Design the sequence.
């Protein structure tokens, strides 16, 4: 059976990644959207195993020691990580895996899984990103300017990604993501069983 | 403006490449299907510049000397080649170029243009290829066996291609080719102008 592939999708805050990924998951079957583990407390409405795998700190630390994360990081006092277990389960079931992680995490995953495919989602322009962050209405002007600066810093590493998708329209970004996922399964190394098996 | 990319499409005789490429060209705009130059005489109904660019031997030789071919070969006493001129014109107009050439030609083109994308179209199985060659009704059983043997030899080099498309159904093969062409335009090196230009 065809194995799944792992796709890392990164992009700055406000680029519209969640909207694009929601639309992609509606269009494309056989995809597992990775659920992170975290030591932070569940917020109202958050379900264990759906929004996060909620772990206590000792369990999280033990998982680090046992090399059970593809990547992990600490952020304002809490740990966040991508458990290998569910990713590998999905891949072995033939499902593609999407990891919605940032550049530091992408580097960690790539060192453990060099065959991972990395996709960077970029805004059509900085002014458009600023417009989207402002329209979202969740951040102060000061915070928006900090997010923009951070986006510009992240953007300096975008050329290290395998693919670069511009979210000008959701339809176009989803079309390109779909094409990338399909094309990656056409690489000869993905089809060696067929190539060798005849 | 976005420049076009060059895609080499190879595959054994009988795999259904023409059918797949016809369907692809109907679906996908902005594509130039490269017309070869040849020194052989036109057959009834063949138009210069449409089916081939018909050249006399001296002109063809001069083009070789002037490095005007991406690849060329001699086949049963006639020369065949891919003129650079029309390929470059199309690329500069933003059109993707499809070269329907064999493995020897693919190697020549790749040495001149390392950024070319090579796609191998394979039959779902050898028995299916034999069935298609038989159904076509144009070859003797002896010729079919020779074509099959040649296909198996070519197939040994298929892993050197960038992509490997299995023509199980025309729809699926076209979908995969379309995805590959779209995905290749999402590579960071294709979008450096955007990456650097903001």
Sequence:
């Amino acid at each position: 059976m065809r194995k799944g592939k792992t796709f890392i999708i990164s992009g700055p805050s406000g680029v519209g990644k969640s909207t694009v990924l929601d639309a992609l998951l509606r269009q494309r079957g056989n995809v597992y959207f990775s659920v992170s583990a975290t030591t932070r407390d569940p917020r109202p409405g958050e379900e264990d195993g759906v929004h996060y795998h909620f772990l206590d700190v000792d369990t999280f630390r033990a998982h680090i020691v046992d090399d059970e994360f593809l990547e992990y990081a600490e952020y304002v006092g809490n740990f966040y990580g991508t458990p290998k277990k569910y990713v590998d389960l999905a891949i072995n079931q033939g499902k593609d895996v999407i990891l919605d992680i940032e550049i530091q995490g992408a580097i960690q995953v790539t060192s453990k899984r060099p065959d991972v495919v990395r996709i960077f989602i970029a805004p059509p322009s900085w002014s458009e990103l600023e417009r989207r962050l402002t329209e979202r209405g969740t951040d102060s002007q000061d915070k928006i300017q900090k997010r923009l600066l951070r986006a510009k810093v992240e953007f300096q590493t975008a050329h290290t990604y395998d693919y670069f998708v511009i979210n000008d329209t959701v339809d176009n970004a989803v079309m390109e993501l779909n094409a990338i996922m399909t094309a990656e399964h056409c690489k000869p190394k993905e089809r060696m069983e067929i190539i060798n098996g005849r």
Residues 141-155 of chain B form the longest helix (15 residues). The CA atoms of residues 1 and 94 of chain B lie 7 Å apart.
